[in-house]
Amino acid sequence: MKGSGFYYEFYNPTKVSAGVGCLAKAVEKLPSLGLHNAFFICDNVEKSSAVDLVREAINSVKVKTGAVYVNSEKVVSMNSLREMRDVYRLNNCDCIVVSGDYRVINTAKTLRMLLSGQVVRFEDVKGIDVARKKINVPLVVIPTSVGISNALTTSVSVKDDYGAVFSCVSALCAPDYCIIDPALTSVFDAPTTIAGATESFAMNIEEFVSKQAIILTKCMNLIAIREIRDNLFKVVNDPMDQHAVLGLQKAGLIAGVCYSSASAGIAHAMAGALSNLTGRDNYICTGIVFEACMRYNLDAAEKDYAQALYYIIGDDRYASTPEQDLGRTLIDTSGKMIKELFEENGLPTKLSQIGIDEDSLDKVVEETMKSYALVTNPKNVTKDDVYRILRSVM
Q1: Buried b / exposed e across 98-128, counting CB within 10 Å, b at 16+?
Q2: What is the pLDDT of residue 188?
Q3: Which comes out higher in pLDDT, residue 105 or 192?
Q4: Which residues contact residue 117 at a Cβ distance below 8 angstroms, ignoring those fewer than 6 apart?
Q5: Burial of 357: CB neighbours in 10 Å, binned 0-12, 13-18, 19+
Q6: Secondary structure of the chain: what % helix, strand, coil (to 5)?
Q7: Which residue has the higher pLDDT, 303 or 123?
Q8: Which of 71, 75, 285, 346 would disulfide-bridge 271, Cβ 3.0–4.6 Å?
Q9: Helix 326-344 vs helix 282-319: angle between axes, to the nearest 10 degrees?
Q10: Residue 1: what pLDDT?
């Protein structure tokens, strides 16, 4: 059609229940989703208090946990997936319920994709919307951490039999139901909480300035940024403040919802590459590179940065900041907040602290340039740009 431009999409197939103490009420909906005999995946210690609470709640509505599998691989391997598939079938399970952090959520989403799409080789379905649903395998996600941005995304990461990591994007990865109850979330590990909230903050900023951003995603991103502003320091000062914890979880949830429609940018791409090469969490890698990536994007995203700044510093400071300084003030404020929180809690702020040196840069750049996130970054990215950014945070 003459005069037409890009078209836009917004996609969120997941039902969400969220609130302090909502678990008992939320699980009442599970039987209506066709859940009877769950394959239950959790992370770390199977007998943790959060896992016990979730299993008791599930059993109370007559949904059995026919098999329990503990898996907290950062990126799930094909060997683990094949083992889980066999256990799932051997125990006649008809659904997947997962309770844990972003690692185990990635595992559950990947298993759901394997089972629903009858996937034999993930290499055959890597890319965007290649896999097709062949059988119905409901998936329920119950996060137990602050960093939950991947809970609702349609993407997963998989490690093949040779150790290579690649991504798949498919509607099969999105859960049917997500239950957010901060009573299940432990925030006494301050570094993990801070790093998780930092990644949510970075994702919401990058989605807000994404080339794919639309009015729906932008509105949600701004609310998420405000939630982090209002609640991060409350949680740091009082880990028992469940309403503040819920605020951080909502911000992560929004980042995940928007990611399927407005992908994040260069910081997300670089963090993913660094994480895969070093084994460090994406959260930490994002915190290291985020300020430098914001400075790189300033000339292309200055107006959006200026708008987002209001939701961080509030009326008085915003009104007293010269208009030409608004974008830079967002970068300075965000960078200072992240650096101080990371340093105070023993988190690395330089690439050298996670094992990256000059000799490692070629691999990091190569992996970064493969990321789809660069396509939606507000500014076109070259290899030389990635080298410069990385060297600035060595």
Answers
A1: bbbbbbbbbbbbbbbbbbbbebeebeebbee
A2: 67
A3: 105
A4: 125, 131, 132, 133, 134, 170, 172
A5: exposed
A6: 55, 10, 30
A7: 303
A8: 285
A9: 130
A10: 36
Length of the chain: 394
Specify burial of residue 387 (Cβ count, 10 A radius: 0-12, 13-18, 19+): middle
Q: Are 98 and 108 in contact (CB under 8 A)?
A: yes
Sign of CA dihedral 388, 390, 393, 394: negative
d(CA 328, CA 306): 8
Residue 39, beta-bridge partner list = 67, 96
C-alpha triplet 206, 208, 214: angle, nearest 5°:
135
Per residue in 129-153, pLDDT (tens digit) is 777 788 899 999 999 888 888 888 8
- Contact call for residues 69 and 38 (beta carbons, < 8 A): no
Amino acid at 155: S
Least confident of 96-100, 119-123, 239-243, 311-315: 119-123
3-state secondary structure of 139: strand
Do residues 6 and 234 lie in contact, with contact meaning Cβ atoms separated by under 8 Å?
A: no
Contact (CB, 8 A) for 199 and 259? no
C-beta separation of 174 from 153 below 8 A: yes
Cα separation, 219 vs 223, in Å, equals 7
- Cβ atoms of residues 377 and 294 within 8 Å: no
What is the C-alpha separation between 75 and 279, in angstroms, rounded? 10
Q: State yes or no: pLDDT of 11 exceeds 80.
A: no
Tokens of 125: 């379905």
Q: Which amino acid is at 192?
A: T
Cα–Cα separations (whole angstroms), residue 247 to 113, 224, 240, 244? 30, 8, 13, 5
- Per the DSSP assignment, residues forming a β-bridge with 127 are 168
The structure's pTM equals: 0.90
C-alpha distances (whole Å) from 177 to each of 66, 109, 161 are: 19, 12, 31
Tokens of 32: 């209506």
- Amino acid symbol at 54: V
**Residues paired with residue 180 on neighbouring β-strands, in sequence order:** 18
